[in-house]
Amino acid sequence: MIKKNLMKTFSxxxxxxxxxxxxxxxxxxxTSESTQAVEETQExxxxxxxxxxxxxxxxxxxxxxxxxxxxxxxxxxxxxNDVVVSEWLKNSDASTELTDTTDLKDIVNVKGSETFTDNxxxxxxxxxxxxxxxxxxxxxxxxxxxxxxxxTLNGKEITPEELAGKSGRVTIRxxxxxxxxxxVEVDGKQIEVYTPFAMVSGMMLxxxxxxxxxxxxxxxxxDGGNYIxxxxxxxxxxxxxxxxEDKWEELDTDGELENKLSNYFEVTADTTNFxxxxxxxxxxxxxxxxxxxxxxxxxxxxxxxxxxxxxxNDGSTQLVDGTQTxxxxxxxxxxxxxxxxxGTKELKDGTQSLYEGVVKYTDGVSQVNxxxxxxxxxxxxxxxxSGQLVNGMKDADIVEKAQKLADGAKQVSDGVNVLSAxxxxxxxxxxxxxxxxxxxxxxxxxxxxxxGSGSWSADTATGFGIISDGKITDKATADAIIQGASATSTxxxxxxxxxxxxxxxxxxxxxxxxxxxxxxxxxxxFEENTLDYDYDELNKDDDPDKVxxxxxxxxxxxxxxxxxxxxxxxxxxxxxxxxDGDDDDNNGGNSDDLDLFNxxxxxxxxxxxxGDDDEEVSTADLLGTSLFQTNDDGSVTLTKDEYxxxxxxxxxxxxxxxxxxxxxxxxxxxxxSVSTMSKxxxxxxxxxTTMKDKSAVLPEGMMKAVxxxxxxxxxxxxxxxxxxxxxxxxxALAGTGSSSNGDSMAALKQLSDGAKQVADGNAQLASGVSTxxxxxxxxxxxxxxxxxxxxxxxxxxxxxxxxNAELVDGTKKLNDGAGELNNGVSELNDGAIKLDDGxxxxxxxxxxxxxxxxxxxxEAFDGDLSEFSDKMxxxxxxxxxxxxxxxxxxxxxxxxxxxIKTDSIKSL
Length: 908
What we know:
By secondary structure, the protein is α+β, with helices and mostly antiparallel strands. It contains 22 helices and 21 strands. The protein has a domain at 2-24 and 34-286 and 882-902.
């Protein structure tokens, strides 16, 4: 324990620890209420209790027979106004009288009615009656430590009275002067030191009036609406240590010790309407005991400390070297895990692309299947319509009737010419006008029925006879022509829609196959570049525990020519002459040692002259390792322990190779399936393109198939127009008489021309109907073939789509597994990085400790430890000697502490 305390003391130059008394070092002592003889406000009590709980200032109340507390009242600048000393005389023996030495005046008993007798020699005798005595008195003695408080506002010094109510950046400086020196003897030497007082000052700052509070040496505690600020100073301690300036600079390169050993501290804050309550300063001289560092003693411990410092210096160097070795190892680990993580990430990306491609592919297959079904349905519907059209035209004898219609139209034209001659003579004009008016109504009735807005009647039948030259006079024939045209139109719409959907589905299917092919190629590349297994070694069957199923090498040797340097076995004896059945030179049951060792090396990426990527290890390479031993007879065998390890590792590699075989086999099957599927999709795409091109002419042919309907409708509309014009002209001619003969002749000319147009149109109609009929027959045959092919396509795509769910589910599981592997390796990678960073921080810290701490301490104090120890003992003795301010018996243990309270600063 003594050595530990010595090392602790020396390593931080002792003073750094003394200066940390405000950092809640865990002091457990509290001020006894019996020493609270001076009246205190609640604010003073709260601040004092906080300081006692947070500081390391302890007292020896539990051991001392006399406990002394010096209460000092000072103004806001620190100047002393009053000093009151409170004394507690412990009557541990329950004596009737207690004798005490004191310099105090105005003595009063503050707790009890006991009286005393002044003996006139500086002593008092108390009539204790077995009780403790509590009294207080006054003194005009100077304090051992003087305190000065100064204030600056925005960089300019200001008095407390002027500062009250002001706002700005304020600095409060507490400065202490130690006036208490002692000369103590240590090992026959007289050493002068200052009594080691630790000064802890505290104050409460209202958070409504103060912000951004800082302290140069101490701490700031936020407590609700207040800041509790405590600063520390150790006046005279640095001077007592008296360390050489050169060594001091080596120890305090950043000025931290200089700050902590200072005789002042400063509090800086932003203030609004400045106001400060009282401050409290506590002082104690027994600071070495407070830290449990009062065990510095004889020179033998200093010698031990010197030895320990040498060992510490050597050990620090070794620790730095060991940490560097550890850092090299963690760096290698981090790099290896990083490569593994990159590989699993590529695998995850590949399986993700595969999954997305399969999803797109299955979506395309589904759409193609839907389009094929609709195509088959539309083709069947179109086939039904074309059949009905052909049958209807055949049953109605449309071709012959169209010819007759043309003949009838010519007769109408001839009749119009005759009518024109008759009208010229003005003979039976009125009768003909009524006949043509009736004819016009009958033609209009036929036109309405064709359009679906009229009903069948005698006039309708007569009208159909007129526009068809008597070929169509019954309702059934007319309905057949109308229904055939409607069915054909519906078939055309359905067919074009189905082909459009099929074309869109094939586009998506082609896109999906492109993605799928790219993904499979990516997996093959990943397998080739990342899972670079040595197939020759993995498929060797010389070990019964290894995988024996041949694995196709995805990376065939690009140079199948024989090795130009075959290096034949210099000992071709099949069993090596030792009867073990192979050509190695080992004996006994370890005949396959070298093969076993080589089997543990599944590939290192170094392609040799034979084209493969393995790297065989020869017996000679292994003789110098711990794996083999040389026997007394000169033979070489593998050690049992190492053989067992190698055998286990070989089995592990066999298991990994087996898993890889399955993966490779599945990837091969997938590649074959994708190639076959790609060819099928290509052929299907060509068929769809051909079908699309052929279907482009279908609407034109089918429109020809409905020409009978439109020819009849056109004939009705043309005849209606001609008759309307003719009746208008004839009416005008009949109404005007011979005086308008010129106009009548013009009207007759128009009628004659119109009749000729009707005749010419019906002649074209007859020719078109014949063409329509021939086209309808060809269309019906083509649609039959289309319907059959579309049905087969629909069945095929249906079978293809039925496997979609299983394919998507399989690739999803593969992707999920790759994701879990990637996540696991990611966590491992993060851990390796953190480990490497942590070891780097450890290395940096150890290097800094070695270079800036241990070695500087070793160099700074090597040879001077005895002198340093003497100074520390002198400071310790000085602290122990100062036990009373108001006086105490020389043979009595006593303790003393000081509490200095300043006036508050408030606006008037």
